[in-house]
Design goal:
- The complex is a heterodimer of chains A (about 625) and B (about 400).
- Chain A has four domains: about 190 residues, Histidine kinase-like ATPase, C-terminal domain (Heat Shock Protein 90); about 120 residues, 2-Layer Sandwich (Ribosomal Protein S5, domain 2), CATH 3.30.230; about 35 residues, no CATH class; about 230 residues, MutL, C-terminal domain, dimerisation subdomain (formyl-coa transferase, domain 3), CATH 3.30.1540.20.
- Chain A has 21 helices and 25 strands.
- Chain A has about 625 residues and is α+β, with helices and mostly antiparallel strands.
- Chain B has about 400 residues and is an alpha+beta fold.
- Chain B has three domains: about 120 residues, DNA Polymerase III, Chain A, domain 2, CATH 3.10.150; about 120 residues, DNA Polymerase III, Chain A, domain 2, CATH 3.10.150.10; about 120 residues, Roll (DNA Polymerase III, Chain A, domain 2), CATH 3.10.150.10.
- Chain B is built from seven helices and 25 strands.
- In chain B, strands 6-2-3-4-17-16-15-10 form an eight-stranded antiparallel beta sheet, with helices on both faces. In chain B, strands 14-11-12-13-25-24-23-18 form an eight-stranded antiparallel beta sheet.
- The chains are: A alpha+beta (about 625), B alpha+beta (about 400).
Chain lengths: ~625, ~400
């Protein structure tokens, strides 16, 4: 029988390492937190082999003395808390004293550090089950850490690491989180020799611009709400920045990136029907809260948080986001204007929204809702759809499908596949047989419906059609592909090459067939049959570029992602003139789509103005 | 400057020059026609900097001069005057006010100082081929780099190749038609990488430059489809490099920039080792394709040809909507079954491109990843077309 023994340190650390250090990304996270806690204002990160081979971090913080350096790789050695009282007021990132010890247990670790007041620094070499080596060395002020061959002594764990691409994505996501939470700090990030980013100290909005580009930063709306307990600020994306995954979503609690389903839901529900159901809004939200009112020590990775009063947070967050969306009048305009124009302010009976005979005050000229009172206590959730007269819009999907059904004269319950736009068999729908189509500014298609006027965004509509076709194409066994007389050589960057290799099957099924010529060249021999003539190679490039951009900010299903970039690049553009036939065809095709009311980015495709609305607008009905 | 002219003659010179005038330009002066009058000769120039056209006509000159005339307005009024009768053109050399006087009345517009017009880089002087037809022969001897085409020859070369020109800006060489001069013949070749056309024009005499390649932009080709006269082609060089091609026809000179790119090595892709060659009736084949194509998927435009037992089965299918069509036409093929797919639009284009009086079409196949060759006649290579098949799974 085995006797019970106390585990040797090495083994104990290896086991604990499993909790803190799950993947290269966690090493980087722990080490950057240490650097930040050490007061660095410039942090430099290099990874090799997605961090599996090497992680190298350089900061310009306080550095460590020889004694501290020796202690740092011991378990529960931390400079950040001294007693359990301190645990109640955690303001630094790290506190468990596990990070370096855990990392040291599963890698070859080298630390070089120097304090400002010392002339010489110290170098520590650590390798599991070997003696520590510590010796003086010449180094800059601050700390440099090399983590080599992570998990080399724990093959089981190494085996569970994902592909380099995936692991790298985890790392870059973490880098982005730090970059967002500390815009005043310079972050430099290299993948081997490739510079991923070098972010100069700046403010949040400029940092966002540096990371995602002007397109994103100019599509953001500021969020701000505060009371004595809690302060929320940050940015939310306009609905068109919607993503299919949750990766464009960042929540920081007192500067620490956290994941919290309840807060995410509060934000999402504030968008309500501005987004497709599966869409995820883009947001970067900072919450400031008294450290005593939540617990971060739920999980060693510290990204889950327990709040004392979760309902209050939910309500407050929902309110903050709703307020921003309202102030920017983002809901399609027709949502608001259900009233007469004569007096600027009026009440709308809100009993359809919530059962308690509520009402809202509306500026009838602008459609803005004026909050009736500030009596909403913080922990009561705000009525989710309070700013829309509910009837049409309680549920976005319904609104659009019903608009759709009205165009095609169908009851909502009828199976969509039976809808026939040119249906003429009954007297009642004979009207629809001579529906006329009209193109507005080569951008929108206007058409008459049984109940009024419908406007369709031609680009978004075509995008949706192509998106669904592309998804279908990628899921079927064969493809349509036109071979080329003269294959085209395309030069790509190493990252693009990685992508192309990974997406080969999907690209093939879209119709792009190619050979790899060299490390940075591919030769395209076949292209899809349905792209715009003369644009095939152009769209291939753009698809890869767009996909790459998407990739950086979201970890989504690659097929969705590819389909979205493919459809956006191949769809007819705004500004293209369409013949009546083309418009008809577009609408027929749109009608076959599974989600005909929003484009893959979540923008609406169809907007309907009812006769009733127009009559009110013209003062025929009061 | 003052002259009077017959409206219908005047309209002709406008229609010849206006294609080179941009409708909208960031350089407003280009939206004007450059008029100059010497004696009884009126010269009109228009340019968009890629293509420049100069044309001349006889008028009743009264006072020499030079002025820039707003092109669109001039064209509009001439059209509205319906080509009837004569008119008088009158411009003030001081303030460039232009008057057009007809029997209906008088129309005024503001012209521009001709000195504001672009300096045309001596395009018209370079070789000084005069517009007199008599001197043509003389030029032939002075320049080895010139060619003579009859009106029908040039129209044919342009017409046959125009449709296959690529619009892909990434491959500029393919946005034009390659003219290969080989002393006794000229190849005109265009491709958009999905199909290729080669039209050949032969001469009994060594009429053409010995060896010269030049790519003409598709817009120029479009204009050449409409020439109304035999044509003399020459080249303008800058530092031993051909920068422009020049066409003299009738009283008109057209000068076009050439595309300074390398045309893809098209000879290499023309198969010579055919596995099979079939002859089919052109109009039968064309109408079969037209009917079957109705049932193809709008994404793919794909039809399949299956050769077996002296028949071609043409099938079109749209799996998404469940539509399907099949037709059979006869052909001379009795070897093992052969299956190949095409974008039907390319097949249609190619068949349409064969002259109407040609009832038969000859199609040769090699492999599924190599182009099919379409000719009007088996033993003639006056017109040869390649179409790349679609990949069948």
């Amino acid at each position: 029988m085995q006797k019970i023994k106390i585990l040797p340190d090495v083994v104990a650390n290896q086991i604990a390492a499993g909790e803190v250090v799950q993947r290269p990304e966690s090493v980087i996270k722990e080490l950057i937190e240490n650097s930040l806690d050490a007061g660095s204002d410039s942090i430099f990160v290099v990874v090799k082999g997605a961090g599996k081979q090497l992680i190298h971090i350089v900061d310009n913080g306080f550095g460590m003395s020889k004694e501290d350096l020796l202690l740092s790789v011991r378990r529960h050695a931390t400079s950040k808390i001294y007693s359990s009282d301190d645990l109640e007021r955690i303001i630094t990132y790290g506190f468990r004293g596990e990070a370096l010890a855990s990392i040291a247990a599963v890698s070859q670790l080298e630390i070089r550090t120097r304090q400002k007041e010392d002339e010489m620094g110290w170098k520590l070499l650590s390798e599991p089950s070997k003696e520590l080596i510590i010796e003086p060395c010449i180094t800059e002020i601050g700390t440099q850490i090399f983590v080599k061959n992570l998990f080399y002594n724990v093959p089981a764990r190494r085996k569970f690491l994902k592909s380099n691409l995936t692991e790298f994505r985890y790392i870059s996501d973490t880098m982005i989180k730090f970059a967002l939470s500390k815009p005043e700090i310079r972050f430099t990030f290299y993948d081997e020799d490739t510079l991923i980013f070098d972010l100069k100290p700046s403010d949040l909005i400029n940092r966002i611009k540096d990371l995602w580009g002007e397109n994103t930063s100019s599509s953001l709306l500021p969020v701000y709400l505060e009371n004595e307990y809690i302060k929320i600020n940050g940015f939310i994306g306009k609905p068109h920045l919607v993503k299919q995954s949750k990766s464009g979503q960042y929540i920081f609690l007192n500067g620490r990136s956290i994941i919290n389903k309840s807060i995410s839901h509060a934000i999402f529900s504030a968008y309500e029907h501005l987004l497709e159901k599966s869409g995820n809004p883009f947001y970067i939200i900072f919450i400031e809260l008294n450290p005593e009112s939540f617990d971060v020590n739920v999980h060693p990775q510290k990204n889950e948080v327990k709040f004392e009063d979760e309902r209050m947070i939910y309500g407050f967050m929902n309110k903050a986001v709703s307020k921003t969306l309202q102030e920017n009048n983002l809901a399609p305009e027709y949502h608001f204007i259900n009233q007469q124009v004569s007096q600027p302010f009026g009440k709308i009976d809100n009993n359809q929204v919530s059962p308690d005979k509520d009402y809202l005050i509306v500026n009838k000229l602008t459609g803005e809702i004026i909050e009736k009172t500030q009596t909403n206590s913080l922990n009561s959730t705000f009525p989710q759809s309070h700013y829309y007269p509910r009837q049409q819009f309680n549920h976005r999907e319904q609104a659009f499908t019903s608009a759709f059904d009205k165009i095609f004269g169908n009851s909502p319950n009828e199976d969509k596949s039976n809808i026939d736009i040119f249906k003429t068999e009954t007297g009642e729908s004979s009207e629809s047989s001579n529906i006329s189509y009209w193109q507005l500014h080569n951008k929108y298609i206007l058409t008459q419906t049984a109940n009024g006027l419908t406007i369709i965004d031609q680009h978004a509509a075509h995008e949706r059609i192509l998106y669904e076709k592309a998804l279908k194409a990628m899921n079927r066994e064969f493809s349509y592909s036109q071979q080329l007389l003269f294959p085209v050589t395309v030069k790509v960057t190493p990252t693009e090459m990685k992508l192309i290799e990974e997406l080969k099957t999907e690209l093939n099924s879209l119709g792009f067939v190619f050979d790899f010529l060299s490390v940075d060249k591919i030769e395209i021999t076949s292209v899809p049959l349905d792209t715009i003539n003369g644009e095939e190679i152009n769209s291939f490039r753009e698809i890869i570029e767009t996909y790459d951009e998407y990739q950086k900010v979201r970890h989504t299903n690659k097929r969705d992602n590819l389909a979205a970039s493919y459809s956006c690049k191949s769809a007819i553009k705004t500004g293209q003139k369409l013949s009546v036939e083309e418009m008809k065809n577009l609408i027929t095709e749109l009608q076959k789509c599974e989600v005909p009311y929003a484009c893959p980015h979540g923008r609406p495709i169809i907007i309907e103005f009812t006769l009733d609305f127009l009559d009110r607008k013209f003062g025929r009905i009061l | 400057m003052r002259f009077s002219a017959n409206l219908s003659d005047f309209n002709k010179i406008l229609q010849k020059t206006l294609p080179a005038m941009p409708r909208k330009s960031t350089i407003p002066v280009l939206e004007h026609l450059n008029f100059s009058l010497t004696g009884n000769r009126l010269r009109v120039i228009a340019t968009d900097q890629d293509i420049t056209i100069m044309s001349m006509m006889n008028v009743d000159g009264m006072e020499d001069g030079n002025v820039l005339v707003p092109g669109k307005r001039l064209n509009d009024i001439v059209r509205a005057l319906e080509n009837k009768g004569t008119f008088e053109f009158n411009s003030d050399e001081e303030n460039y006010e232009i008057k057009i006087i007809t029997s209906f009345g008088q129309y005024g517009m503001k012209g521009l100082n001709p000195e504001e017009y672009l300096d045309l880089p001596e395009l018209f002087q370079s070789e000084k081929p005069s517009l007199d037809t008599e001197t043509k022969d003389e030029k032939d001897t002075t320049s080895s780099k010139s060619a003579f085409f009859t009106k029908d020859e040039i129209i044919r070369l342009a017409d046959k190749t125009y449709f296959a020109v690529s619009t892909d800006e990434f491959r500029p060489a393919m946005t034009g038609v390659l003219f290969q001069f080989r002393e006794t013949y000229v190849n005109a070749v265009s491709t958009d990488s999905f199909r290729l056309v080669k039209a050949v024009c032969k001469s009994d005499k060594p009429n053409y430059p010995i060896e010269l390649n030049v790519i003409l932009p598709s817009r120029t080709i479009d204009l050449l489809r409409k020439v109304d006269n035999d044509l003399f082609m020459s080249f303008i060089e800058n530092q031993k490099k051909i920068t422009h091609a020049r066409f003299d026809f009738g009283e008109t000179i057209l000068i076009t920039r050439v595309i300074d790119e390398k045309f893809p090595p098209y000879e290499a892709v023309i198969p010579t080792d055919y596995r099979m060659t079939v002859k089919v009736n052109k109009s039968e084949f064309l109408s079969s394709i037209r009917r079957v194509s109705i049932f193809t998927s709008s994404i793919s435009n794909q039809i399949k040809l299956e050769l077996e037992n002296n028949e071609i089965s043409i099938t079109g299918e749209d799996e998404d909507s469940g539509s399907k069509a099949i037709e059979k036409i006869s052909c001379n093929y009795d070897k093992e079954k052969y299956l190949i797919g095409f974008n039907f639009k390319y097949l249609e284009d190619a068949l349409h491109n064969i002259d109407d009086d040609n009832d038969e079409v000859v199609i040769s196949f090699t492999e599924q990843n190599r182009p099919a060759v379409i000719k009007a006649k088996e033993d003639s290579d006056d017109l040869l077309m390649l179409i790349m098949p679609v990949r069948l799974n």
